[in-house]
Amino acid sequence: MTIREQTIVNSSGNKIVTADKVITIVGKIEEPLIMILENVLSSSECDTLIDLAKDRMQRAKIGKSHLVSDIRTNSSMFFEESENELIHTIETRVSNLMNIPISHAEPLQILHYNVGDQYQSHFDYFTSANVANNRISTMVMYLNDVEEGGETHFPSLRFSVMPKKGSAVYFEYFYNDNRINELTLHAGQPVAVGEKWVATQWMRRQRLRYL
Ligand SMILES: O=C(O)CCC(=O)C(=O)O
Ligand SMILES: [Fe+2]
Questions:
Q1: From 190's CA, which of 3, 45, 164, 209 has a CA 20 to 30 Å away?
Q2: Does any ligand 1 atom lie closer than 6 A to the CB of residue 200?
Q3: Domain ranges (residues) in the chain
Q4: Whole-angstrom distance, CA of residue 45 vs CA of residue 116
Q5: Which residues form the Fe2OG dioxygenase domain (predicted)?
């Protein structure tokens, strides 16, 4: 038998029960744990998130220098923590899914890609030394169907997830063996036709919110 490291999400079976919804796992890689989840958000939740975010988008900035960068050509915004009932409902559902308390959740991020926009290969965790409260897991939720392109691509695993409205990809990088964490390198591939909206939830190892 192969010995595997402990994962954050216990993903036995094909369903995860949250406070308000039962969500289906439709695909999975075991190590690092990557799961494709269907119907995480309803169609109207996706539409409302886009509507709420639309007028608040800014060209994406990366890293501490906050320079506009070619690594990310998409635009982004963050909702305030639980800023309205919908955001609170989604944060609660996603923290149930990710098996991490909402107090460890970063603000929910929205990304928008036009044709040609991309997010080049990166790790979601911070790689600099002595990061006190690093990220441990990610949920990327697709808010619309993309006509062509815009896959979330994991080059080291040669694995791609096609955007589908309401679906999500989950992955975690909290392994003792850093070689496993490094396999979560991923990119938002350029959008070829149409546009792409996603919502990203990152979780931290320790508490981040004091409510
Ligand atoms: O847009 C995507 O498919 C990936 C987004 C992403 O990597 C992120 O938000 O960290
Ligand atoms: Fe990412």
A1: 45
A2: yes
A3: 15-204
A4: 26
A5: 104-205
**DSSP run (H or E) holding 75:** strand 75-78
DSSP symbols for 98-113: HTS-GGGBPPPEEEEE
With tokens 């915004």, the residue in question is 77
Ligand located closest to 149 CA: 1
Cβ of 95 below 6 Å from ligand 1: no
Cα(23) to centroid(ligand 2), Å:
22
| CATH fourth-level superfamily of 15-204 | q2cbj1_9rhob like domain (2.60.120.620)
Q: Which two tokens stand for residue 98?
A: 């990710």
pTM: 0.94
Which atom belonging to ligand 1 lies closest to the Cα atom of 122? 7
Span 42-89, pLDDT tens digits: 999 999 999 999 999 887 665 555 555 667 778 999 999 989 999 999
Q: What counts of helices (H) and strands (E) characterise the chain?
A: 3, 17
Residue 144 to residue 63: CA distance in whole angstroms: 27
Q: How far apart are CA 163 and CA 145, in angstroms?
A: 6
Q: Which atom number of ligand 1 is nearest to the Cα of residue 152?
A: 3
Cβ of 142 closer than 6 Å to ligand 1, yes or no, is no
Nearest ligand 1 atom, CA 189: 3
